[in-house]
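The following block was generated as part of the benchmark described in Methods. Ligand: heme C.
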Amino acid sequence: MNLKSKCLFLTFLGLLTLGAHAQEKAANADNAMRMPKGIKQPAQKAPPSNNWLQDADSDSDRFKKLEIYLRGFDQPMLEVGERYQRTYDAIKDRNWELADYQWDKIKLVINTGLMKRPKRTQNAEGIFLDGIWKQMDETIKSRNYGEMEKQFMVVREVCMACHAAEKVPFMNNRPLFRDLVF
Ligand code: HEC
């Protein structure tokens, strides 16, 4: 074996070991289990354990825990932000299939977010889903780069308009909207 293939072999072994470890649970410090002070959740008879849902006293408490855990509109919006970035990258790469995929996911994420925060539905549909989302979808499918550049800039404005309408205008002053331009 020459040096290069030895190195390759060792890297391969390393990856194999990493893979095996990924299946195991991470190590824990030897501390007692207790509920966090920072969140209010239903009281339960069972002591805290990793079976955080099974431990609850009733299904109703389990649903309450899930509602807390699944949060509100912030988490879907974090995903929308990520996928918006990926849409931009895909357009730059002229990877229309990927742009189309990301754009569909953005619609799904906003809609499932609205299941949790129905007060946002009126603006989400009125400002975004029923209008600009569809126009952007058509532009992506048309694969017209020149049109796409203009359309993306309109989408950007509309994202920011909803933040203003929903009274979180401070969301707009960030690199995502400053830097991702055509
Ligand atoms: C319903 C109107 C609405 C639309 C449409 C909308 N947003 Fe938001 N966005 C919000 C609200 C409201 C928040 C604040 C989150 C919260 O209240 O929990 C937010 C927060 C964000 C955040 C910050 C998330 C965080 O926690 O750091 C990003 C990033 C974001 N939006 C990106 C976008 C992008 C990109 C688009 C367009 C593709 C968009 N948003 C469209 C309402 C909207």
